[in-house]
């Protein structure tokens, strides 16, 4: 049986580095948080993790929500990993983000953002586990 990493990896792309660091620190009990400094610089590292880890998120704030490099990165990640998800807080252009992106109000509290990520990650973990089990049974 192959090992499966069920702890989600959450990449935070916030322009305000203090807010990003606080979110990453507060999500440690349920996820591995990382900061995406620059979509053009961290692209290989991010996409490498997207292909390795099943449950992965990209969380973006309003200031970064119109960054075309981030949107392109999110679309590539969605093509690579069916369980990749985006959470955009206060998107200026919500239609540009990949299908399945969770859009939150720009006035959302950090607690609400973390609760939503925790709950959605749990639901994805359950769905992923069921899908892996079904595929394993089909391959017998």
State the helix count.
Answer: 4
Give helix % range. Answer: 40-55%
Tell me, what's the shape?
A: globular
Strand-pairing-aware structural class: alpha/beta
Query: What's the end-to-end separation, in Å?
Result: 14 Å
Question: What does this protein structure show overall?
Answer:
By secondary structure, this protein is of the alpha/beta class. Strands 2-1-3-4-5 form a 5-stranded parallel sheet, with helices on both faces. The longest helix is centred in the C-terminal third of the chain and has 29 residues. The radius of gyration is 15 Å and the shape is globular. The two termini are 14 Å apart. 31% of the residues are buried.
Quick structural overview:
With 140 residues, this protein is of the alpha/beta class. It is built from four helices and five strands, in the order E-H-E-H-E-H-E-E-H.
Comma- or semicolon-separated keywords:
140 residues; alpha/beta; five-stranded parallel β-sheet; 4 helices; 44% helix; 16% strand
What is the element layout, followed by pairings?
Elements (H helix, E strand, L loop, with lengths): L8 E5 L3 H10 L5 E4 L7 H10 L3 E5 L7 H13 L3 E6 L12 E3 L5 H29 L2
Parallel strand pairs: 1-2, 1-3, 3-4, 4-5
Helix pairs in contact: 2-3
């Amino acid at each position: 049986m192959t090992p499966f990493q069920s702890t989600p990896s959450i990449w935070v792309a916030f322009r305000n580095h203090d807010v990003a660091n606080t979110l990453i620190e507060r999500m440690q009990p349920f996820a591995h948080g990382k900061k995406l400094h620059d979509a053009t610089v961290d692209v290989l590292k991010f996409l490498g993790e997207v292909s390795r880890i099943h449950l992965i998120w990209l969380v973006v704030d309003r200031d970064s929500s119109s960054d075309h490099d981030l949107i392109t990165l999110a679309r590539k990640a969605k093509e690579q990993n069916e369980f990749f998800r985006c959470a955009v807080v206060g998107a200026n252009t919500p239609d540009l983000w990949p299908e399945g992106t969770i859009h939150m109000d720009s006035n959302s509290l950090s607690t609400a953002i973390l609760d939503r990520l925790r709950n959605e990650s749990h639901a994805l973990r359950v769905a992923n586990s069921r899908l892996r089990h079904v595929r394993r049974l089909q391959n017998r």
